[in-house]
Structure formats: structure tokens, C-alpha cells
Design goal:
With 285 residues, the chain is α+β, with helices and mostly antiparallel strands. The chain has 2 domains: 90 residues, no CATH class; 178 residues, no CATH class. The chain is built from 8 helices and 7 strands, in the order βββββββαααααααα. A hairpin with a 5-residue loop joins strand 3 and strand 4. Helix 4 packs antiparallel against helix 6 and helix 7 packs antiparallel against helix 8. The longest helix is centred in the middle third of the chain and has 36 residues. The N and C termini lie close together (5 Å). The C terminus is likely disordered.
Amino acid sequence: MFWVKFVIDPSHFSPAHMLLEINRPNLESIKVYLPRANHDMVIKTGGSLLPFKHREIPYPSHVFAIPIFSQNLQTVYVRFQSLKPMLMPLILWEENAFWAHSNTRQILNGLVYGSTLIMIIYNLFLFISLRDKAYFFYALYILSFLFVLLSIDGNAFRYLWPENPEWANVCVLYFIFSYAIITLFFTGSFLNIPINFPKFNKWLVLSIGLSILGLIIHMIAPSFKKHTIFIGVFDSIFMLSVSIIALKKGYIEVRFFLIARMISVATFLSFGLMNVGIFPDIQRS
């Protein structure tokens, strides 16, 4: 549990209410306490443990309307409770500014999701036309990455399973492990590891097995996450090593694959460290 207190000076704002955004969709329990002049307390409840329809403002992140009761200084208390590392980026918006930002964000999300779907369809078409399974694995690779993005930014909960908060709270690691497994299959197919690098084939099988094991562990014990770092590091070292060796042997097309892998490794290792509470973290009490 963690408490945050801040004070609003109404003289700095013109609207009758502000919007408080907590831009961490997977925070499980949030309560906003608004003391009033007559000693009453307005309490607003949110968090990812509730179905999406219970949100005061339907938005992927948690957004609460903060009414301005008077021109006096107004204190706001926010209580956070979660089994996950509690990263709490709080933003106090004027309403017009928030919706302008929201529209821009939704347009950018639409461009990302739309281009991703086009890439999936295009690679499936190439697979059907050329019968090259590398295109099939690449389409699955992009699809699994899309689900990782949707689940992290809260849009999967909003649009795909709004009545299933239990699944929304655990699905991120399911999709990350699925992404890792599919990426390994794609790597094996793209580099043709059994033929071109037979010494690495056993390491490919081991990496796939570890990722499947990690997925099974997450199914049995969703709250146990520290194995994800070990598996992620092992898979990353394997894929980077075989890619670098392939590049040294003259496989020029591996350059873009290697760059993509380096970006992906940095992104998902950072997320993994965040998810297990190693970096960065705010201590829970």
C-alpha cells in the first residue's frame, strides 16, 4: 500500500473540475479521497481489479474527475494497493488539454495498430503464395507483439475483455512468453539454424523449452515472476549470439534482424526488471 498527497490551488485553474490521470493501467486498487469543507469525504474507487465499465472515465489508464469545491486550497489523497511494482505517474489535467492529448494518443495508437495488422496480413499472403514458413512465423511474431502492446497500454482490457479483470491482470506475461516462443521459432526458421548453424540447434530447442516452462510456471503461480528475468536473459543471449555469428559469416540480411532484436531485448528486459520490482520500483508498505 502506498499513499500520495497533493494540494491543488484553484486560483491557477479555470475549469470547475480537473482530471487526474494515473498512467499505469495495471495498478490493481486505487482510491481517491477528496475532503470537503463540511468535513464530508468524497471517495472514488478504481483499479484493474474492477471490470472496465466501473471506471469513472472510460480510458485505458485510470482517470478521475477532481471537482473544485471552492477557491480555497484543496487537498487530494490517493491510496494505491497492488501486488505489482507500483510505478505511479500522476498527471493533473485541465479537461480540454486531456481530451486533446487523448485524441492525439488514439490517432498514434491507430496508426501503430493499423500498420501492424497490415504487416500481419501481408506476411500471411506471402506465406500462402511462397509456402515459406518463415513468413508464417513472422506474422505470428508481429501478432504476438501486438497483443503485448495492447495488454501493456490497457487497450486490450478496454476493447477485448472489459468484463474479465482477472485475465487483464495476468495476461501481459502470457503474451510476453508467447512472443518469446514465437520469436525463437521465427529465428530458427529465418536463419535456418538446423542447416546453417547445427551447433546452435540444441540451444534453440533449450531456449524454446525454457520459455514454454516459464509460461507453464506463470499459469500455475501467476504471482511468481522472477524466473522471467533468467529466461529472458538466456533467450536474448542466444538470439543475439547466433545473429552476430550469422552476420560475421556473410548473411547480410541479418543486419536488420539484429537491430530489431537489440531494440526488442532492451525493451523487454527493461519491462521484465520493472515487472519483478528490480528497476525502477517504489517500495510497498
